[in-house]
Amino acid sequence: MVGGGSNPTPGEISLAHRGVLFLDEISEFPRGVLESLRQPMEDGEITVSRAQGTLTFPSRFLLIAASNPCPCGYLGHQKKACHCLPGAILKYKKRLSGPLLDRIDLYVDVPPVDDLDLVSDLPTESSETIRARVIAARERQKYRFKDLNIYTNSEMSSSDIKKFCRLDDQASNLLKQAISKLSLSARSYFKTIKIAQTITDLKNVEIIDSACISEALQYRSSFD
Predict the structure, then answer these.
(1) Over the range 109-122, which residues count as b (16 or more CB within 10 Å of their CB) and which as e?
(2) Antiparallel, parallel or unpaired: β 53-58 and 45-50
(3) Half-sphere exposure of residue 95, counting CA atoms within 13 Å on the CB side?
(4) What value does the mean pLDDT take over residues 87-100?
(5) Per-residue 3-state assignment (H helix, E strand, C coil) for 106-132
(6) 163 pLDDT higher than 90
């Protein structure tokens, strides 16, 4: 994952630079491997030290991870019973440490698709429409950061956030309440604003409103 060898070579973390690193069944990975993701997720680079020398590789990747709720996969399922012991579920979830989870921007629960929804012919938004909206949002970010060496909202530092992200009064008040009620860490606080800014860009508006903050907070909920 991190790279290595007698003459240090890049691992999957660096090979995914400016691309996507997808970890399926992330809770099945050894905890030590997962903890090695923390530094590159924060800094955008990883340093590999071996007897022959020390090298630093770029590693600014988009991490996408999937995980079951328990070892058997049926915890919370509406139609199938989970047969995992409580201790096994706890051990399974503890593979993902708090500091690692705090570095993940979005948590999305994906329930089983209902039978009627699976066979439904109801019209849905096309991929072409969604693609156009995403491209427009990326162009807004490209213009926003034209004088900086960053490309997306996720790369903003705290000073960048204060410079570029504008919240209306209701959004600011809602975020202040969330800090207290949800015990947000400093990292989660800034990530919430960055997510809300991306939602705002997708809506093609300038100011972050309370609806965007509310949606961003839903994605920052704890991993249960």
Answers:
(1) eeeeeeeeeeeeee
(2) antiparallel
(3) 19
(4) 88
(5) CCCCCCCCCHHHHCCCCCCCCHHHHHH
(6) yes
**Is 20 strand, coil or helix?**
strand
CA pair distance 6, 66, nearest whole angstrom: 32
CB 44 within 8 A of CB 151: no
Q: What is the pLDDT of residues 17-67, one digit of tens each?
A: 989 999 999 988 988 889 989 889 888 888 887 777 788 889 889 999 999
pLDDT (mean) for 163-177: 94
Q: What is the DSSP string of 165-222?
A: --B-HHHHHHHHHHHHHTT--HHHHHHHHHHHHHHHHHHT-SSB-HHHHHHHHHHT--
What does the CA dihedral 192, 193, 194, 196 come to, rounded to 10 degrees? 90
Provide the 8-state DSSP code for 154: G
3-104 is a CATH 3.30.1220.10 domain: no
Rounded CA gap, 192 and 188, in Å?
A: 6
> Within a 13 Å sphere around the CA of 188, how many CA atoms are in the beta-carbon half?
22
Higher pLDDT, 135 or 112: 135
**Domain limits, the chain:** 3-104, 127-219
Half-sphere exposure of 215 (CA within 13 A, CB side): 13
Binned at pLDDT 50, 70 and 90, residue 224 comes out as very low
Mean pLDDT, residues 214-220: 89
CATH for 127-219 is: 1.10.8
The structure tokens 């034209």 sit at 146
